[in-house]
Specification:
- By secondary structure, this protein is of the alpha+beta class.
- The chain has a domain of about 160 residues: Trefoil (Acidic Fibroblast Growth Factor, subunit A) (Trefoil), CATH 2.80.10.
- The protein is about 40% helix and about 20% strand.
- Strands 9-8-5-4-1-10 form a six-stranded antiparallel beta sheet, with no helix packed on it. A two-stranded antiparallel sheet has the order 2-3. A two-stranded antiparallel sheet has the order 6-7.
- Helix 4 packs antiparallel against helix 5.
- InterPro entries: Fibroblast_GF_fam, IL1/FGF, Let-756-like_FGF.
Length: about 250
């Protein structure tokens, strides 16, 4: 075989190999076509047209959920003397009517341990006690509205003022002055003053008598029925539409 024939054979082999590499495989063609078809189906702008509307609905849903939680936390404070605690516009009283709009309250946690505030759900006023031990309704949340909640063995609660009585310091000073006296007569008076100090230092409780009238703090006691309250749940179906509309607004 001469050189020219050998070059011809080599050229044919190279041509055959080049043609085989240039022809695409069926798998690659199918994949490329499928990708093109998928790209043709997808839109250019993938932003949802109702995106802002969805965000608005989510905010509304969150507000509805928070309102539902507040409605679930509504209570009635039933006193063992036979009446529910009412928080009016400036005053406190008791009523025997069940689910009265002024008797629906929220017990709010202020700080640990067991310091709470009692807010009227309809009026928005807070239960408060002044320096004389008198109960009243305060528009603003102050230290006079802080009460110490204690759960008794009979599942009733007592609410003692966390700020009052204010006379304990004066009684303590009076007690220290009397201790300086050495005479027997002064010692007898000192015993009387000691009993008075105990009376001054006792807690002042929220209390309602059998007529629904508030009892002043110095005359209240945790063992009295008028000072014990039961937190009763509220049936939302028994509330008036006017109450529900004002509370949700």
């Amino acid at each position: 075989m001469d050189i020219s024939s050998m070059l011809t054979v080599v050229g044919l082999v190279v041509l055959i190999l080049g043609m085989s590499m240039a022809v695409p495989t069926p798998t690659t063609t199918t994949t490329t076509n499928s990708i093109l078809r998928t790209t043709d189906i997808l839109p250019v702008n993938t932003t949802h047209p109702d995106e802002n509307r969805t965000i608005g609905l989510s905010r509304e849903l969150r507000s509805t959920v928070s309102t539902s939680r507040e409605l679930a936390s509504l209570k009635q404070l039933y006193c063992r003397s036979g009446s529910h605690l009412q928080i009016l516009n400036g005053s406190i009283s008791g009523t025997r009517k069940d689910h009265d709009k002024y008797a629906i309250v929220n017990v709010l946690s202020i700080r640990i341990p067991s310091i709470v505030a009692i807010r009227g759900a309809y009026t928005g006023y807070f239960l408060a006690m002044n320096e004389m031990g008198q109960l009243y309704a305060s528009k603003n949340l102050t230290e006079h509205c802080h009460f110490r909640e204690v759960i008794l063995e009979n599942m009733y609660n007592t609410y003692a003022s966390a700020k009052h009585p204010m006379r304990s310091d004066r009684a303590r000073r009076r007690k220290e002055n009397k201790r300086r006296k050495d005479s027997r007569r002064k010692r007898k008076k000192h015993r009387k003053e000691k009993k008075r100090d105990r009376k001054d230092r006792k807690n002042w409780y929220v209390a309602l008598d059998k007529n629904g009238e508030p009892r002043i703090g110095p005359k209240s006691n945790s063992k009295q029925k008028m000072s014990q309250f039961l937190a009763r749940p509220v049936d939302l179906q028994k509330l008036s539409p006017r109450f529900m509309k004002s509370y949700q607004n």
